[in-house]
Design brief:
The complex is a heterodimer of chains A (248) and B (170). Chain A is of the alpha+beta class and 248 residues long. Chain A folds into 2 domains: 99 residues, Roll (Ubiquitin-like (UB roll)); 130 residues, Alpha-helical ferredoxin (Fumarate Reductase Iron-sulfur Protein, Chain B, domain 2, Orthogonal Bundle), CATH 1.10.1060. Chain A is 37% helix and 15% strand. Chain A is built from 10 helices and 7 strands. A 5-stranded mixed beta sheet of chain A has the order 2-1-5-3-4. A two-stranded antiparallel sheet of chain A has the order 6-7. In chain A, a hairpin with a 2-residue loop joins β6 and β7. With 170 residues, chain B is mainly α. In chain B, the strands form 2 sheets. Chain B has a two-stranded parallel sheet. Chain B has a two-stranded antiparallel sheet with strand order 3-4. The interface between A and B is medium-sized, with 13 and 17 residues.
Chain lengths: 248, 170
Amino acid sequence: MAEAIFEVFRGNCEGGQPATYRVPIAPGMVVLDALHYIQAHQAPDLAVRWNCKAGKCGSCSAEVNGRPRLTCKTRMDSLPLDKPITVHPMRAFPVIKDLVTDVSWNYRVNKKIPPFEPRPGTDWKMYQEDVDRVQEFRKCIECFLCQNVCHVLREHDKMEQFGGPRFFVRVAGLEMHPLDSKSRTQMLKDELGIGLCNITKCCTEVCPEEIHITDNAIIPLKERIVDEFYDPVLMLIRKIRGAKQELR
Amino acid sequence: MAAAEHAKTTQAAPIDSGEVEEAVREILAPFERKEGENPYTIHRDLQETMQNLVGIFRNEGDLIRALEELEKLNDRAEHVSVEGSRLFNPGWHLVQDLKSMLTVSEAVTRSAFARKESRGAHSRIDYPGFDPVWGTKNNVILRERTTMTLRQSPVPEMPNDLRQLVAEEK
């Protein structure tokens, strides 16, 4: 039977290094199966987050051969077996143990975002195309692979100033909802720092749900902010309209 | 609401610190034991036993053997070892989960053994048909100290509106 060599990070918040394990490969195996094999036979205390094993819960995020992936969706037959396969925790978040990282920062950011609020007495009818637009954003499984790969967070450590692609998707899902009554553009500009995004699209590349994060969420939100705060023609029009309202 | 009101006015029941210490000792024991078994091996053997002997099609001989195997697995589960720290240790978590898995497996096997008919997902090759008498009974599992006992309780009366729906379906 074929065998693969894995180099899995072992360590904690203070540091660590990869340990080598040999794993027999069966057809249809995914990286998570290999990690379970290592737990069962060689390293019973290997800390791994996982749950559904079906690419839907977002628990098993890790970096396989340097790429952020869900380990339950990374098939062994998609990886070269002639070299060791590296499995590391997500680099943008502090390590708790081995492959388990502390992603609680994300939940703190989420609390800042005002939730959906319809106008009282709204007629609950929407066009299918408006629904389709936001349904894409609701596919998000909160795996945080996009947050992990975004250079603003990963390389430049700007967690205090930047919400990250996941939350731009969340805000897009709220702002573009036809029945939502709140405006989150000020917050996008100031607290969530959407201006720091320079649309390098790494987030879109790693999203396991294939959400077009940059094209369908971030860029339209940036356009809304430009319209509201930076477009001189629109500012003039709003001023004129505003003055007309007062005259009436 | 009523639960919240009650909670505000009552105090927690006193807990025997001796029991707490005993529980802590029991949970940490696998770290102390040096020559014990790997919990993952027991888990795998439990999976094999249930899959082969208490699977989709069941018969008396297999179920009796399953109960014997489960008893052996219970003994093995008392002597597991784990290594590593207490921080996020899946092997250690499995030791706790194994107890529940073994309990549930035994309960399922005992019920399957007692129910000498086939109904729904429970298929006995040696009793392939419905038995209307069993149709009126549920199996109830009880713990008496460390042993498991089985008794029957009557199936509750079907409410009238549900009975009507079932009649209409036919």
